[in-house]
Design a protein that fits this description.
Layout lengths: L4 E5 L7 H9 L2 H4 L3 E7 H4 L9 E3 L11 E6 L13 H20 L4 E4 L4 H6 L7 H9 L4 E5 L4 E4 L9 H4 L2 H19 L4 E5 L14 H15 L3 E6 L1 H5 L2 H7 L2 E4 L2 H12 L4 E5 L5 E4 L16 H15 L3 H4 L10
Parallel strand pairs: 1-2, 1-5, 2-4, 3-4, 5-12, 7-10, 8-9, 8-10
Antiparallel strand pairs: 6-7, 6-11, 11-12
Helix pairs in contact: 1-13, 8-9
């Protein structure tokens, strides 16, 4: 069986993305499980010996490749690709790598996508509205998606992503949570080999204390769980977040995944439990997308201090999901795209 083609967007060239990508792809264990197709900056990639052996094409000339390939999206000036010194041109470039990789996904030129870290701030400063990879991918494919932190001890999906906390009560709805629980269940069923058991967290302290500390559990989260269970989803809750994560070693024995209500509620325990090996997975796309669970780390970029372990784990997960042949389970319900 041929190895999966994994597209890799290089991220911010002034961050640690280029170096951790190069270090990861130099490892023999990765060469055995995937064929990399790297979307990035030509001069930046030329600094690393591993990429000098790759075939080179432009995005326009990219077809179905048969070996490691660099897709040269930009050729930035040296001042715009200096480690630790982000630039406006670099902000535009990192977005261009993502969009070029997405076009390759749509054309069927790659089987999965792994994204190196970008800077939302730098992309926005370059004049491009950008809330995150997850949102861009959802719009590009016109599907509802779910962000999940897939770690060795726990999987944590997010009901909401990059939004202000003040907006959470309006964003959480019975219909939305029910659809997310269905998506999470059908996405994980091929992975765990049965209907997954899902813990649903409450929004408020102590899951609202029966309405004393907030009504969202009574009026939204509880009804969504009941509707999901009626649709054959093994969902349980609302569960108080502090109680669940206080005993992390017991989670895997009771639940296959957790649905958190907001970003930090899910990301803090995911990173605390295993920062290096936790992988960000986007569920609901027609093909897998993963990324390491860290940022651009400008302070250590170019100094040889960045660990490539998170990138290795993200690439291995992308290859595993691409090879699983479970695209139907990962595909979410279509919705109208916004301006694409």
């Amino acid at each position: 069986m041929s190895l999966p083609l994994v597209g890799i967007s290089l991220g911010d060239v002034s961050g640690i993305g280029p170096e951790v990508t190069a270090s990861a792809l130099a490892l023999p264990k990765l060469r055995k499980v995937l064929v990399p197709v790297v979307f990035g900056d030509g001069p930046t990639l030329e600094r690393f010996p591993v990429f000098r052996r790759y075939a080179r094409v432009t995005p326009e000339a990219l077809g179905r490749v048969d070996g490691p390939t660099v897709v040269e999206v930009t050729r930035l000036a040296e001042k715009d690709r200096t480690p630790g010194r982000p630039s406006k041109a670099g902000g535009r470039a990192q977005y261009a790598y993502v969009t070029a990789a997405i076009e390759a996904m749509r054309a069927g030129h790659v089987d999965a996508l792994c994204t190196a870290p970008v800077s939302k701030e730098q992309i926005s400063r370059a004049g491009i509205p950008f809330m995150g990879h997850t949102e861009v991918l959802a719009d590009a494919f016109g599907v509802d998606v779910l962000m999940m932190m897939d770690g060795p001890r726990v999987r944590i999906a997010l009901a909401t992503n990059h939004v202000p906390v003040a907006q959470l009560p309006k964003l959480l709805t019975v219909e939305g949570l029910t659809a997310q629980l269905k998506l999470l269940s059908r996405s994980l069923e091929p992975v765990v080999g049965r209907r997954p058991r899902i813990a649903v967290l409450g929004l408020n302290p102590h899951a609202g204390e029966g309405g004393l500390l907030g009504r969202e559990e009574v009026e939204v989260i509880g009804p969504a769980i009941r509707k999901a269970r009626a649709a054959k989803v093994d969902a349980y809750g609302p569960v108080p977040a502090d109680g669940l994560f206080a005993r992390p070693d017991e989670i895997a024995g009771r639940y296959d995944a957790v649905l958190a209500m907001y970003h930090d509620q899910g990301l803090i325990p995911a990173k605390a439990l295993d920062f290096e090996r936790t992988v960000n997975v986007t569920l609901g796309l027609p093909m897998p997308r993963t990324s390491p669970d860290h940022g651009t780390a400008y302070a250590i970029a170019g100094k040889g201090q960045a660990s490539c372990v998170p990138m290795v784990e993200a690439l291995l997960k992308a290859a595993q999901l691409a090879g699983a042949g479970a695209r139907g389970a990962r595909r979410g319900p279509r919705r109208p795209s916004r301006g694409r």
